[in-house]
Amino acid sequence: MIPVIDFSKLQGDERALTLAQIANGCEEWGFFQLVKHGISEELLERVKKVCSECYQLREERFNESSPVRSLNELVDRESQGEAVKKLKDVDWEDVFVLQDDNAWPSNPHDFKETMEEYREEVRKLAEKVMELMDQNLGLEKGYIKKAFTGDGQQEAFFGTKVSHYPPCPRPDLVDGLRAHTDAGGVILLFQDDQVGGLQILKDGEWVDVQPVKNSIVINTGDQIEVVSNGRYKSTWHRVLATRDGNRRSIASFYNPSLKATIAPAAAPAASSYPKFMFGNYMDVYVKQKFEAKEPRFEAVAAM
Ligand SMILES: O=C(O)CCC(=O)C(=O)O
Fold it and tell me: Can you state which reaction this protein catalyses (predicted)?
């Protein structure tokens, strides 16, 4: 089971133990879940409500989307006797991204206000988690944030991806989201309470990220792997499509600015990771997201 950590215990006698649990989550799993993380249940309930209402308004569009068309074509070919394989270039997902400066859905009317409030809370939580990582890695407080912002000269990238994985008639032929590691820094996921599907690859086996009501799942991306010089490896994960249930997931990505220079924090001379500009890494990542990460590091080193 993915570790579940009570974040409120950082405040009391169990701070050292909680820090150790977070270090273990980062080192051994690349994923952990936080409960009592300080984001109010009342806000989280509102987030669920507005995101579900927003999806209801998009549902018809999903039925006409390219994943649905691709799967229908495949099933047609199968019904004509062709041996078919799982789709390799399709995700069974409805998605849009919220950033500070892009267009947001205007419906339902309280979507924007609620998601602004949520993003503010989750951004603060990301920065707290990054400071704990600084401490656990023996770095000065604020090191990772500084690395992500060019020493405070730039803004970190902060995006929130609102996804739904609608019921899929043939989960054997398409994944909700194909296996990948995340490109960036720290990812904070508010996943569905009921409908599972997210899995991580641990010691060669796919392990479920069990839904825990109102928890926030934390995982680390490729840039934390570089900064930590390979101590905190980004973990492969995927979302399985399911026949029943429409899985909601809201993933917030705290990433370096595109202009930030990323390099291992300690002993760079002895490191197997290069130093590069994050924007260059993203240029490689968009083309190779669903492939192994090592060639991405090689490609960006050669740029
Ligand atoms: O929806 C999820 O649970 C995971 C999302 C994810 O892995 C991603 O967007 O990179």
Answer: 1-aminocyclopropane-1-carboxylate + L-ascorbate + O2 = ethene + L-dehydroascorbate + hydrogen cyanide + CO2 + 2 H2O
Angle at 49 between CA 48 and CA 50, to 5 degrees: 100
- In the structure, which protein residues have their CB atom closer than 6 angstroms to any atom of ligand 1? 161, 163, 177, 182, 189, 191, 198, 237, 239, 249, 251
- Domain membership flag for residue 284: yes
Which range of residues forms the domain containing residue 120?
4-73+88-301
Nearest to 46 by CA among 147, 130, 139, 116: 116
How many domains is the chain partitioned into structurally? 1
251 CA → ligand 1 middle, Å: 6
pLDDT tens digits, one per residue of 88-129: 999 999 999 999 999 999 999 999 999 999 999 999 999 999
**Going by CA atoms, what residue is nearest to atom 10 of ligand 1?**
182
Whichever domain contains 238, its CATH number is 2.60.120.330
- Residue 82 within a domain: no
